[in-house]
Amino acid sequence: MMKLRPLGNTGCLVSPMGLGMAALGRPGYINLGHGADLEGRTDVVNMEANAHAVLDAAWEHGIRYMDAARSYGKAELFLSSWLATRKIPSGGTAVGSKWGYRYTADWQVTADHHEIKEHTLDHFSSQWEETQALLGSHLDLYQIHSATLESGVLTDTRLLARLFEVKQTQGVLMGLSLSGPMQAQTLETARTVTFDGVPLFDAVQATCNLLEPSAQTALAEAADAGMGIIIKEALANGRLTGRNTHPDFAPVSKTLTAQAERLSCTMDALAMAWILSKPWAHVVLSGASTTEHLASNLTALDVAWDAEAEEALSPLAESPEAYWAFRKSLAWN
């Protein structure tokens, strides 16, 4: 069992590793090998059963932060049914979800658009009601999904005021998730949003991994200021695992393999151990879509991360622009 710790100054207790449900709630996702993991069992009944199995395994290993979103297909529904059937009380595990994208793939792996972003007051209002209907009192944290400076969400005064009102009256923490090469700048802007001196945002969820570590300083500063820090895409959507067969990745794979062998761990555990070693990272999400992958991810908690690994792997970082351009090219499968 993992020892729980505070999510910044929010008062919410979380486990060092959490479970992100982006790959569990819909038949198509961009993680490498996602389609092979599902083995054709993409109907709703089988996907709910698989999601429940992974949630069960997460619970048994002490994971106490579950993360969903309105755009993750039926992830909120699957999480809601799991909480009900397992009789998990409110407060038994920390639960976060997100608003801002609409799922539009109609349960298909191939679609013109899998999700459409809309950071408007009307969209928040409708998605807040949908999330409340499913997660109700279990919901601890509600996040803007992939906030960026370009979307205008951080300058919409009516929307921001409504988020603060919900935070104050409904007892839910407010957060934002980040995306794109300007994560640090977006976070810095978000931290300036206050009402009567009270910060709007209690937590931030950001991509930070060996290939894209550019937000580290901004995240550490936010943690020092009391924000909860949640890390997503620690494995770069599978690029930091043995599933990455792209020819340009061979030198990186060789370096990762050498360090994994030296530390007697799997490549995925090594990559997750890097971010778990950061004192400002309160929760690192596993995006596992099978119990086997979750079990492998969990071994990261036992990796004896050291200075040699830090020195060997730090040069793997790409420019944020290159990283996010490659991510955009990943195929839904």
Automatic annotation (TrEMBL):
Residues 40-308 form the NADP-dependent oxidoreductase domain. It holds the Pfam family Aldo_ket_red. InterPro entries: AKR2_Oxidoreductase (IPR053135), NAD(P)_OxRdtase_dom_sf (IPR036812), NADP_OxRdtase_dom (IPR023210). It comes from the Bacteria. PANTHER family: D-THREO-ALDOSE 1-DEHYDROGENASE, NADP-DEPENDENT OXIDOREDUCTASE DOMAIN-CONTAINING PROTEIN. This is Nadp-dependent oxidoreductase domain.
